[in-house]
Amino acid sequence: MSKQSRKFQVPDALANLYDFANTLDVRHFTHHGVPHGQDDELTSADDLAGWLAQRRLARPDAKITPAMFEAALALRASLRDYLQHDPATRRSKSATRALNAAIASFPLCAELGDEAGAALRPIRDDALSGLSVVAAELYDGARDGSLDRLKMCAADECRRVFFDRSKPATRRWCMSNLCGNRIKTRAYRERQRDRK
Predict the structure, then answer these.
(1) Quick one: which of 174, 60, 31 has its CA closest to 127?
(2) Three-class secondary structure of residue 167 per DSSP
(3) Does residue 95 sit in helix, strand or coil?
(4) Residue 151, SS3?
């Protein structure tokens, strides 16, 4: 679990999924006069190896091949695409097709005898086996409904993945006082301009 997932109270059961989706930061707005620059934590295979090792999802000496790196980026892209859909429409074939194809690179098997009774374990036995944890979190979250609370901010200049802790689970923005306020202010100004 990262500082970000702790700060925003993302459940441990979805923390790796949340962190992985947010390794790509496409935010491009100015807040209090300070521009927010876009960033990608995974620009190379070494970056991915470091990210996995930091979360204890791979050994520190794990070697990521170019093919493995591309599979990880495909998983992240399809995951972000899936999370941008409203939870009610995520189950459509168009929303799940690419994600299912990307997940196929990270197969799991059910294993009995764990303290929890049973668990999904990676079949891969290489440096990318840790990303199978993301696939397992997707499965568990979809099964128990918690995945519906993992969403992408509706603000085009943000697109950060967040965990919706609101009681009715209807939040649209990662932070209503930042992204929500910016969009509402923009809409208000456009209405005022249209009235003139």
Answers:
(1) 60
(2) coil
(3) helix
(4) strand
Cβ proximity of 66 and 49 under 8 Å: no
- Per-residue model confidence as pLDDT tens digits over 21-34: 999 999 877 766 77
User: Distance between CA atoms of 144 and 13, rounded to whole angstroms?
Assistant: 11
pLDDT digits (tens, 9 = 90+) for 134-192: 999 999 999 999 999 999 999 888 999 999 999 998 888 887 766 866 666 666 567 76
* Whether the Cβ atoms of residue 108 and residue 122 lie closer than 8 Å to each other: yes
CA distance 85 to 78: 11
Residues facing residue 156 across a β-bridge = none
The pTM for the full model equals 0.86
CB 2 within 8 A of CB 129: no
Structural domain of 45: 3-195
Percent of the chain scoring above 90 in pLDDT: 55
Q: Could you tell me the CATH number of the domain that includes residue 66?
A: 1.10.3300.10
Alpha-carbon span 79 to 42, nearest angstrom: 15
Domain tally, the chain: 1
